[in-house]
Amino acid sequence: MAYNMGFWAFLRRDLQLINRRRGEVASPLIFFIMAATFVPLGITPDSELLKNIAPGIIWVMALLATLLSADSLFASDYHDGSLEQMIISPQLLVMPVLGKVTAHWLTTGLPLTLASPVLGLLLSLPTAGYLPMMAGLAVGTGCLSLLAALGAALTVSLQKGGLLLTLIVMPLYMPVIIFGSATAQYSIQGLAWGGPLAVLGAMLAIAIALCPLAIASVLRLTTIN
Amino acid sequence: MNWNWFYRMGSPRWFYESTSRWLPWLGILTFVLLAVGLVWGLAFAPQDAKQGNSFRIIYLHVPASFLALAGYFLMATAGAIGLIWKMKLSYMVMKCAAPLGAVLTFLALFTGAVWGKPTWGSYWVWDARVTSMLILLFLYMGVLALQYAFDSKDVGNKASAILALVGTVNIPIIYKSVDWWFTLHQPATISFTEAPSMHPDMFQPLLVMILGFYCFYAVALILSVRVEILNRERKTGWVRNLVKQSTDKSLGAEL
Amino acid sequence: MVAEPSLLSVKGLCFERDDILVIDSVCLDLSDGEILQIEGPNGSGKTTLLRLLISALAPTHGDIYYRGARLSECRFEYLSNLLFLGHQSAVKMTLTPEENLNWMTGYSTTSEELLAALDSVQLTGYADVPCYRLSAGQQRRVALARLLISSAKIWFLDEPFAALDNQGVKLIEACMQGHLDVGGSVVLSTHQPIAMNAVRHYSLVDQSSQGVN
Predict the structure, then answer these.
(1) Which residues of chain C neighbour B157 with C-beta distances below 8 Å?
(2) Which pLDDT does position C206 carry in this prediction?
(3) Contact C34, C92 (CB under 8 A)
């Protein structure tokens, strides 16, 4: 039996499930774009000022949008017993977990990355910043999804888990946003932006290696007791 | 190798009874160290050339910061021991270390703000160390919130232990990131929390205070854990005997 | 002649949660082709015991043996050979019965087999109706269809008769009998009497094993 059997099965299943509820995919994306509109309204529409803070704003919005959608990662599986089945299946639990997180990234992080140029336009992001911004988001949202899954696993059995999830995950997000935002800022300042991107890549590598293990042990703990 | 001593340490009763013997002495030592350190630092150490008397707050700020960080690692280690060896006492230590560490982190942030106002003109500056301390406070709060969120105490303990371990792995990453972020953004001319190179006359009371704070942490933690043990084991024979003895004593004193 | 080790053997199983001993020194035996009913009033720990048996929970003391080998040594074989149907059926509401069965079997069964299984549980023609449009009993039957497709040796069923009408109850009993006839075993927890032959009982209240009724 192949080690990665559970991965493709759950990736396919989750994509199928999300396909049935397409509205749910749209909400983080719409939040992303609309919330970024608040910035010029609340701060200033002056493009000279906006272009300094544009990368940061986009990153903060991406972060918030990911947190919004994190709650539902394991919630429905917990309530209808699929999580229980995942836990007692003979395969490694990390594979289904990775499959689910990948499905989440494909339907949250990737759309955010692809929609970020629109926000760049709205927030006067300088031209040099577009490509690095997208590259950084593509890699960084992977980290965000993995860490959000960890928070979701810890709070899946709780009633009002959403707020606690945010509290748990926020400190872990800080390095990601620091380097993610720096990727675009470096490019805008004319520096080589490969450095921060490489650090983001390293964080993603560590997260892919370690988060599923932590998530699996947390799921075994909180699902069945 | 004989690991009996390790497993014996996992017995709450053994912990309670052996700490009963030497805790008062540690308490006296703590009081002495803190009293000496405070008086020496606040009253007798020489004034700083640049900051005048306001620098004296470091005698509280620096020890609190050290212990806030050390306390987190202690909490995570206790959690790890509990997860691996399933020792209940270890979980109790983790549970008690969390609020203690959170309070110390808050104290570090507060004293930092008090220091900041006369020195740099504002209560809050986003420099590397302060930001890292703030994130540490959030990490503590996460562990605390998780502990009490579950109905089952066992699940709550294990979940917080896992979260504390995840936080431990992240702390070096976070600290390094914030450090890097700060060098990216700070204007090169001003450096905020670079500790002034200290004259030995100022440094010695600081050492005393650090030691005093470590002892204080130990005393506070042990006292907390003792209460937790009494609470958990309240149905066992030895706790009932203890309660009976102390009630008899106080009744005897009344008569 | 060495006696063949029984399929499943439990010795001195204990489980403690929050300082309460929920399961205390349970000893059980299960052989091929046997059906074991775990009895007890609500709250006596039937679900906990089942979860311990499927190794979803780790016992505080005691051991479970699968064909003579300790569970920790043969987890993969054991888990590959068991099927668990809990209170919740793990049926996703937004998918059709066919899609549900597809993911439950890891996308490794052909469409004909899936449809045949749905036929056996009297869900013919519902194969492409989303499950939220089916009644509770029909949703349970989707989970039952999974039992029929799988080749697992041991079935663990937690309150399988809940929310089923008489027809559904008969259907489950027929499925179980079919499984027993081919040498499979069933462990179930229920307080309803089962209209089948040769059911062994284990009572969690007085922890006695009674023989065949």
Answers:
(1) none
(2) 66
(3) no
Q: Is C25 helix (H, G, I), strand (E, B) or coil?
A: strand
Q: What tens digit of pLDDT does each residue of C185-209 get?
A: 999 888 777 777 777 888 877 666 6
Q: Write the residue in A20, A79, A224 that is nearest to C56 by C-beta.
A: A224
Distance from CA of B170 to the nearest CA of A (A): 7
Quote ipTM for the complex.
0.90
Distance from the Cα of residue B84 to its chain's centroid: 23
Tell me if chain C has a CB within 8 Å of the CB of B158.
no
User: How many residues in chain B?
Assistant: 255
Structure tokens, C204 = 């969690």
Residue A84 placed within a domain: yes
Q: Could you state, in order of their start, the residue ranges of all structural domains in chain B?
A: 16-222
Picking from C208, C213, C211, the residue whose alpha carbon sits closest to that of residue C39 is: C208
pTM of the model: 0.89
**Beta-carbon separation of B135 and A167 below 8 A:** no
Contact A169, B168 (CB under 8 A): no
pLDDT over 50 at C181, yes or no: yes
At B101-146, the pLDDT tens digits run 999 999 999 998 888 888 778 888 887 888 899 999 999 999 999 9
* Contact between chains at B152 and C17 (C-beta distance less than 8 A): yes
Predicted confidence (pLDDT) per residue in A34-82, tens digit: 888 888 888 888 888 888 889 999 999 999 999 989 988 999 899 888 8
B67: left (phi over 0), alpha (psi -120 to 50) or beta: alpha
d(CA C65, CA C55): 11
B16-222 to CATH, choices 3.40.50, 2.130.10, 1.20.120, 3.10.450: 1.20.120
Token readout for C39 is 């009895």
Q: Determine phi and psi for C122, rounding to 5 degrees.
A: 60, 40
